[in-house]
Amino acid sequence: MSILVVGSVALDTVETPFARVEEILGGAASYFTTAASLYNQVNLVAIVGSDFPREHLDFWRRCPVKLEGLQIKEGRTFRWAARYHMDMNTRDTLDTQLGVYEGFHPIIPEEYRSSKLLFLANIQPELQMEVLEQVHDVRLSVLDTMELWIMTARPQLTEVIKRVDVLLMSEEEVRQYTNRVSVASGVRQLLDMGLQYVVVKQGSYGALLFGADGTYFSAPTYPLEEVIDPTGAGDAFAGGFLGYLSIVEPGPDDYYSVKEIKRAVVHGNIVGSFVCEDYSIGRLRTLTMDDIAKRYRSLFECSHFDPDWRSWR
Ligand code: AMP
Q1: Cα–Cα distances in Å, from 132 out to 2, 27, 67, 307?
Q2: Ligand 1 centre distance from Cα of residue 80 (Å)
């Protein structure tokens, strides 16, 4: 079952308190595509400029990634620069250059249109809406966004939220969008917009899953001893989440059970944790399903506790 993604493909410059790397492969769709292609075929829709290094395309061609929807246009590739704070959970954006994304309109190739799983990665909400208008056979749609669009394109973002099944937001974004201090109360407001699930990303602290059916699940994160670069962890989370769902059978009503959604959140956390171990998609290049399975097992061990207890007094 193939997965359709639209989002940014970029050249990033990243500064951490320990190092600086320039013009490395970045972009929300790049992280998602590479992560999800560990599980299944990914159909990528994005745009790059004529300066985009061909080696990245060659790498994706060797994965199960379809590039027919990747437009290559004369001009500059999207560029983004950021500096991380000491905690590596927070960062400042230093520069954003849209380049060929200015004037971009996603075109979904005919062969992508039967994709059952859709990820609307971080990009202008109007473009995310253009994608929704072109696909009619999607079983589960997942949306990601960022502070920039909450602040500058709120009405358009609201329209997109009303049309998707699952929303991924960081804790801070939930507060910004809903204007509520309590995350649980903010999530209630979001679920009332018609979403099936909201996943609240908590950086190095894991993720929370809230369902319209009352589901609440707190997924732990893997305790990494060294974080090299957390850029793209959220997009890789989405890659693990939808990647996992692409390899399991939904129920007869075409819905995924809550059990599978919870497993998908754990896969998301795991793939997101691996991304932080290197710059760009470096760690994803060598990642195997065995590595994921090992970390899945160890997350189970560290978060499972005995439900039976009783006082000895
Ligand atoms: P994450 O760390 O998951 O939030 O994703 C970071 C990625 O998002 C970087 O690789 C950036 O290239 C990309 N990005 C940053 N700003 C934007 C933007 N305004 N639109 C689309 N993608 C962006």
Answers
A1: 16, 20, 19, 43
A2: 7
| 10 CA: nearest ligand 1 atom | 12
Determine the distance separating the centroid of ligand 1 and the alpha carbon of 42, expressed in angstroms. Answer: 19
CA-nearest residue, atom 18 of ligand 1: 123
Mean pLDDT of 5-11: 98
Question: How many A from CA of 47 to the centre of ligand 1?
Answer: 14
Q: What digits encode the pLDDT tens for the residues 72-99? A: 999 999 999 999 999 898 899 999 999 9
- End-to-end C-alpha distance for the chain, whole angstroms: 56
Contacts of 220 (CB under 8 A, 6+ apart): 206, 269, 299, 302, 303
Q: Which pair of structure tokens corresponds to residue 94?
A: 């230093």
In Å, what is the CA distance from 53 to each residue of 6, 21, 43, 75, 120? 20, 16, 20, 13, 24
253 pLDDT more than 90: no
Q: Which of 146-150, 200-204, 252-256 has the highest mean pLDDT?
A: 146-150
% of the chain residues with pLDDT over 90: 93
The one-letter amino acid at 198: V
pLDDT at 312 over 90: no
88 lines ligand 1 (CB under 6 A): no
How much of the chain is in helix, strand and coil states, percent to nearest 5? 40, 25, 35
Spatial contact of 209 and 261, defined as CB atoms under 8 Å apart:
yes
CB 215 within 8 A of CB 191: no
What proportion of the chain, given as a percentage, has pLDDT over 70? 100
Phi-psi sector, 226: left (phi>0), alpha (psi -120 to 50), beta: beta
pTM of the model: 0.96
Can you say how many angstroms the Cα of residue 56 is from the centroid of all Cα atoms in its chain?
Answer: 19
